[in-house]
Amino acid sequence: MDMEARAHSEHPEALRLWLRLLTCTQLVEKKVRTLLRERFSTTLPRFDLMAQLERAPDGLKMNELSRRMMVTGGNVTGITDQLVSEGLVERIDVQGDRRAYRVRLTPRGRKLFNEMARAHEDWIVQAFGALPEKEVATLHRLLGKVKEHARAHTKEAS
């Protein structure tokens, strides 16, 4: 039973929409996790870490990587250790701080990430394949309005 199945017709439409969004997100994420594992022998957290590093060619400090990924430092360290041992990322000393280091993709890691990113993009496009381009654009615009509204209300509550 998925999240959406919990909602009934007497529930507000907004609640039913929220549960449908969660269900769709979970279904797409499950498919992406499966495809990453099958085609690249990797996990979504490893892909996410490499995606963060791809956006920062000079690398990132571990605390910055942890913050961007919204996970604990221990999680980032474990994934980084695996990727270093596979030659996909490297640690670089930070000048002036003997305790810190930056992590960045190696050329091999960048090449592999680019292959994974192209496949990932195709999988996401396929996930929205039931919608014509115009409907995808409309859904994107409408969810943008929800996002702005939620951000405004989050600031008010702080």
CATH level-four homologous superfamily name of the domain at 42-118: Winged helix-like DNA-binding domain superfamily/Winged helix DNA-binding domain
Shape: globular
Task: Figure out the total of helices.
Answer: 6
Question: Which regions contain 5 or more consecutive residues with pLDDT less than 50?
Answer: none
The whole-number mean of residue pLDDT values reads 91
**Could you state the order of secondary-structure elements as H and E?**
HHEHHEEHH
Question: Layout of helices and strands, plus pairs?
Answer:
Blueprint: H1 13-40, H2 44-54, E1 60-61, H3 62-69, H4 73-85, E2 89-94, E3 97-105, H5 107-127, H6 133-157
Antiparallel strand pairs: 1-3, 2-3
Helix pairs in contact: 1-5, 2-5, 3-4
Name the features:
Arc Repressor Mutant, subunit A, 6 helices, 158 residues, single chain
Q: What does this molecule look like?
A:
Strand 2 (89-94) and strand 3 (97-105) form a beta hairpin. With 158 residues, the protein is mostly helical. Helix content is 67%, strand content 11%. Helix 1 (13-40) crosses helix 5 (107-127) and helix 2 (44-54) packs across helix 5.
Summarize the structure.
The protein has 158 residues and is mainly α.
